[in-house]
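Protocol step 4 of 5: obtain the predicted structure for the target chain.
Materials: sequence only (see below). No template structures provided, no constraints applied. The aim of this step is simply to have a reference model before the mutagenesis design in step 5. Sequence pasted as it appears in the construct record:
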Amino acid sequence: MAEMTELYGTISHLELQHKRLQLVNTYGQLMEAKRQLTVLLIRRHFHSLQYPKNFYYTHANKGGKYLAHLLKGNTPRTQVKKLRTTKGSLTVFLEEIASEFRNYYNTLYSLPAQEEPPLGVDNPTPIQANI
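Step 4 output (structure tokens):
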């Protein structure tokens, strides 16, 4: 950081000097200082790009804040925002959406009531019939 601050100061000083004197020597020094600053910025940029990869590599197999942060981004996508009801209207209220899901699965998994005959000698169970 100190090196960057020093380069910025040098560049501003050389720019002012070059504007006043218009010397080729000053222009060469200015271009060299700008090149050094560019190299430094590129180096810092590549370091900042590598940091997330390195962090992911070292923390990916651990359950912690990083994993919680990654999973947190996936949760809103699984929420049902709106639903068309059995009546045909569109609803955005969570209570109505939950009620629609509850009614749907109740009708899906409810078996029709069947009257079963009493078990005995005349009506053996399937296992007794095979004996």
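Step 4 remarks: The radius of gyration is 37 Å. Strands lie at 83-84, 90-91.
Proceed to step 5.
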